Amino acid sequence: MTNFFRNSSVASIFFLVVLCILVHSHFFVESPKVQINEYDGIISMLLVKFIKPLSSTWLFIIYFGILLFISIRLNMVLNDLKMFQHNAFTTSLSYVLLTAMLTQWCNITPAFVANILVMWIFIKLCKLYNNASPKTNLFNTGLIAGLTVLSYHPTAVLLLLVSFALAVVRPFRITEWLVLVIGFLLPFYFVLSFLFLTDQMSLIQKFLPELQFNIPLNKTDTWLWVNLSGITFLLFIGMYYLSPATNRMVIQIRKNWSVMIVLLIILLPIPFIFKNAGIESGMLAVLPLSAFVSNAFLYPKRSLFPNLLLILALIIIIHNNWMLVKI
């Protein structure tokens, strides 16, 4: 089954669409919901105003549209960056599977939409190496990062990623760091200026992240822990197959994978450190997770083991579909 995705062809896109429909077949009974937390960014405001009032049919179309766009675009980005030994659609396969492996990830959420911006930042960071005009790229990266934090507050942790990438990819130059900081602060400057000029400074809290340690996991939910264990297992298998592959990669690609690892590490704690973030905010981590999990479907020489992994994921997804329909 995974052979359909272990090469790059138009047929792979067709099978990807079919897979999207299969793993989220519960939408034919219960349409996706718009799930947001109050005051967690501009995306939430837009979802409440423009998306939540729409009919179930439009919510269905919007969810699948975003899912297909992110999965295909991420796959194209990683292929263009030569992060795998050969082009394939296993990253798209992994992304689609992971979105269905937790019921909380089967809704339209700000974290789901913010994946587009996180992916954009990753692309910018990977282009820093040997860039002819690094200051322009750094300013744009900082600007996008600032807009991303305003759009969805838990993405404030991306400051760590941007700092790490600049420290690793580029030699230290104080002017480059200043350009990055100016780019990041610029969106906040315009927001604060607007609030000040319109005498609405009391609303500033809506545009700033709020930290609060919490544990969103239900200790008595057995299937939640089974789902998380399945995702963790796929991640470890993907990292196991990535390790020997990196030995044959050039230094730039290794640095790109380092950035991806840091991205995963800083996104995983988000549900635990931001106020009312919830498990749905973990959707941000699906982006780097899918990049690592894709190695488990791509590199094994025989297709038997990847097919077994796919069956394992589908068993979890089938149960999730049943639970969602039952609810």
What would your notes on this structure say?
With 327 residues, the protein is an all-alpha fold. It has one domain. The chain is 65% helix and 0% strand. The radius of gyration is 20 Å and the shape is globular.
Main β sheet profile: none
Percent in helix: 55-70%
Give the rounded overall mean pLDDT.
90
Number of helices: 13
| Beta-strand segment tally | 0
Distance between the termini: 30 Å
Summarize this, please?
This protein is mainly alpha-helical. It has 13 helices and no strands. Helix content is 65%, strand content 0%.
Produce the secondary structure layout.
Blueprint: H1 10-23, H2 42-51, H3 56-80, H4 90-99, H5 110-126, H6 134-151, H7 158-169, H8 174-197, H9 222-246, H10 251-267, H11 270-273, H12 286-298, H13 304-326
Helix pairs in contact: 1-3, 1-4, 3-4, 3-5, 4-12, 5-6, 5-7, 6-8, 7-10, 9-12, 9-13, 10-12
